[in-house]
Amino acid sequence: MKKIYVSILILIIGTSVFAIGKVEEPPEELPHFVIGFDSVPDSVPLTGALGFYLGFALFEGLVTWNPQTLEAVPGVAESWEISGDGLTYTFKLRRNAVWSDGTPVTADQFIDAWLHILDPETQNREEFSLFVFKGAEEFRTGEAGPEDVAIRALDEHTLQFELVDPVPYALFILGFKDFGPLPTHIIEKYGDQWTDPEVFVGNGPFVVAQWLPGNRAVFRKSDNYWDRDSVRLGRVTILQIEDPDTALDMFQAGEIDMTSMIVPYDQLVDLLSAPYIQLYPLFQTEYYYLNMKSPPLDDVRVRKALTISINRAELIEKALGGLGYPAFGLSPPMPFYPAVIGFEENTEKARSHLSEAGYPQGEGFPEITLIYNDNRQKNIRTAEYIEQQWAENLGIVVNRQGMSWDDYRNAKGTGDFGIARYGWWGHYLDPNCFLELFTGGYEKNPSGFSNSEYDGLLERASRMPAGQERLDLLRKAEEILINDEMVIIPLYYYMYEQCIDTEIWGGWYGNVMHVHPWKWIYRK
Asked: In a 3-state reduction of DSSP, which class is residue 337?
């Protein structure tokens, strides 16, 4: 295996400016699909919202997802076997899976990509997903070398890896771009120019046809994709449209077929009955962190008073235009894991908790600060509503402090807050995806919460196969977090709105992961 993974981070981010002017026309019988997006950056991104879309269009991993069921289905791997203990996975790669230049996709190209993400020198922030591999975390921390990570190519078309624990969601996460391959033959040849349009190759259903930063990006159906007969779009264009009102006007005028931009709040209520407004729940929870290191939030009675004094149904109606549904726990509900109901809203009980903590009717309660990033209108409206609720129901003053995204992240990361908003989008369909955020020492846990029983439950669950016994341990852990300690204030589970007319376009499904691969979209 060629060890070129050490220096690939800057290459994946992209250093070249695409400026292709000519677009190769697709066959006339294949339709053109136009999307409004808020930005077309200088180079092809593989991070952020646009990168998420392009990850499914330009690349393909061992598996991909059925957009209707979110089931992991064969991608580059035509088949796989899982050992009886759930730890060893062996994948057979398709011999007709090639890069867009016709070069075969090999097992080593997956391994190089994974080791690149894990390598300490890359400082990749998404490496935690790959910690499922035996030896991966040790390599990341410098305690072991790349040869100690239990991923290997048995031959050019056979890939095998071993997991630390029998995680039930292993197949699902293989569909993310972090688990895809890299065109190492192109990177070796062109170095940091591998993303230039003249040499760029992918192994997904589409290839780049045009890239005009700040204007548009055009993609055409790949001639060499192994499942090209299933692709029913000839071309996809992304137009940069920064203003949501403009995007909506263009959609209604038929100039774009889908917008990924949030519909303006002042128009959304009137449009909810429109057939092209698609509403669907996301695997995402909005909540407020409570800084347990900062008085008076170190008192669980205060934390409970703040939590149960909020009317969530009214919050969603008045501040969010009805988009969302009340959250009384951390993890969103799933068919196999009903939502935890950790508390009941009760203003009188909230006042009693506050009085027991030494603040009757809010008297003597110190002013605390609520921080939030103010680049989203819903964050401002939510904070305004909750400030009013706490003033009316508890008699306390909370200072709202809207911040830029960078300032907000810095304040939250350093613990310079009393209360801080947060929204977590689960990257795999399992309650552990949310609960692991609050294990001791986890960097995305600025609350100061640390509980050995909680950590122990998650540790035990991590060593168990899928099943009710494992889910029972996770539920018990979530009840400690919400019922006993009230570490966060759950507010609502997300809903998303998107403009696409499903009477015209098929293959698009509203799913909790917000996954809409272009491969499956077709004109009816």
From this structure: strand
